[in-house]
């Protein structure tokens, strides 16, 4: 019996996915649409190689690459966006945009494919990205320390099998950014001494280092009371810890969070670090139009940070 050897390697996994490729096929037809999407994929492959990466595989309208480090991966991400911007669209459609997500860590390489949690986290990020957005993890951000880099901390979220993952946006269209950080210590300092305001109906709370913990639930002992049968007696806690604000679900029906970038998360006995502005629904998903929604507004020691744009407003 012959055993195929595996080997481990540390690098950055990047996924790039063409936005709304189905609309291209619908407008241009299957043959022309297929040729156009393939031409775009070929461009992404060339840019990955030119930036020092390896293309592991293509999956429909998505390309998966491995880079030795974050500088090469982010160079490729910017090149992918800007190169597609220079291309002509098809059948009157604009040039397609990209979703890009990346994570740095160990990968297992076997038969020219890669496996492991690093791949899973990068795949999660590309699904969370908005058009033209590059999402990276803390591990990628740390690898960029010391470079001229513009980052925006978005949120921390639990990822199955990986614990809590901090997610940042790599701001490549710099004219839209007003928080510019050349190293991670500067970026982290923006997040300390946070507070958050909660509003629901006529109730309002502020969580900060001076008021570090509140509970929300159906019964009267909670700091904020939500009278809904889907809400547990003590449904969730919000805590200030080490300069950040965490939402902790401890319910039966889960807690739903809508973030400033429009993405939604479901917490089931999990926690997330909140930032920006957003909404929280206890026990009911947003698709059901819940009648009791909690609006939150995050503030740091120097002003308000909107997690969707990176804009920093002074007091």
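Sequence proposed for the structure above (315 residues):
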């Amino acid at each position: 019996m012959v055993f195929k050897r595996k080997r481990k390697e540390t690098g950055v996994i990047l996924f790039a996915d063409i936005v709304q490729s189905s609309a291209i096929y619908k407008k241009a037809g299957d043959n022309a649409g297929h040729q156009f999407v393939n031409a775009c994929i070929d461009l992404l492959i060339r840019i990955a190689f030119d930036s020092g990466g390896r293309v592991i595989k293509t999956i429909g309208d998505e390309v998966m690459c491995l880079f030795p480090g974050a500088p090469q991966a982010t160079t490729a991400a910017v090149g992918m966006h800007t190169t597609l911007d220079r291309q002509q669209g098809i059948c009157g459609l604009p040039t397609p945009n990209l979703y890009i997500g990346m994570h740095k860590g160990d990968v297992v390489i076997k038969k020219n494919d890669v496996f492991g949690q690093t791949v899973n986290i990068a795949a999660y990020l590309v699904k969370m990205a908005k058009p033209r957005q590059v999402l990276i993890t803390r591990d990628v951000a740390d690898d960029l320390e010391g470079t001229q880099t513009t980052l925006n901390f978005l949120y921390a979220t639990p990822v199955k099998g990986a614990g809590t993952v901090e997610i940042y946006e790599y701001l490549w269209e710099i004219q839209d950014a007003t928080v510019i950080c050349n190293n991670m210590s500067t970026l982290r300092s923006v997040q300390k001494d946070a507070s958050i305001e909660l509003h629901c109906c006529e109730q309002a709370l502020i969580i900060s280092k001076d008021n570090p913990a509140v509970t929300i639930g159906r019964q009267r002992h909670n700091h904020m009371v939500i009278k809904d049968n889907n809400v547990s007696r003590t449904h969730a806690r919000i805590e200030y810890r080490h300069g950040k604000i965490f939402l902790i679900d401890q319910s039966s029906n889960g807690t739903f969070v809508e973030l400033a970038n429009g993405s939604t998360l479901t917490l089931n006995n999990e926690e997330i670090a909140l930032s920006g502005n957003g909404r929280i629904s206890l026990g009911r998903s947003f698709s059901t139009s819940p009648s009791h929604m909690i609006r939150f507004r995050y503030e740091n020691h120097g002003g308000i940070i909107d997690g969707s744009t990176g804009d920093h407003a002074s007091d």
